[in-house]
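Please, structure for the following, as tokens.
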Amino acid sequence: MIIRTIMCIAGLVLASPAAAEPTKVVVRVLSQDAKFIGDGTGGARVTIREAASGKVLAHGITKGGTGNTERIMEASGRSPLVQTADAASFNAIVDVSEPTLVDLEVEGPLGRPNSVVRVRSQRWIIPGEAIDAGNGWLVELPGLAITPRSVREGDALSIEAKVELLCGCPITPGGRWDAADYQVKAVLWSGKKRISTTPLTFRTSPGTYASTIPASTAGKLRLTIYAVNIKTGNAGVVHIPAS
């Protein structure tokens, strides 16, 4: 009887699900061609889900600064250490009871709503094995942030666009992010018909490009403004009404 009871208890123990183990996950988000996305441009929203079920395990926003310029921009080799203590990150504790494949979704910069982009990534989380060594879970967001403005002046539109990296890093003549490396254009549309494409020229620092274009066509007009780094191909696009 005693042996049978012990065996029953052992069976229950073996059948019980494994306890979830809190596991640290640190996520950092880099702007393509530039630095970490943090407080300066509103941070990036991070969501971690179980890949199999879609269950949300953690979510939040990266907080902190853009990091050390030289360490990031002059890094070389495979998986170089680019983070510093002040670099923006999202820190989470995820409860998993077994090795779990997870989906990571990152979108930002939240402070530049017209320029938000989203990327996804996957990796395994092992219970108790923190993802915080080196750079943690490092994700890169492509794109350029564009803050546009257009003013109608008779039969013309005066267009201005502030262009910056997603981390807020400035574009300046001869700077680390050289204004000469960026091509900015405005496309005027009437419905689905393209009326004109006009280059915007650099006017003032940081990253302000401008031009005046004819806009005598009747009806509702809209503008597409895009910027491209001609060396790396990194690009950003915004659409606005032509007013």
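The two ends are 88 Å apart (CA to CA). The domain at 144-241 is CATH 2.60.40.1930 (Immunoglobulin-like).
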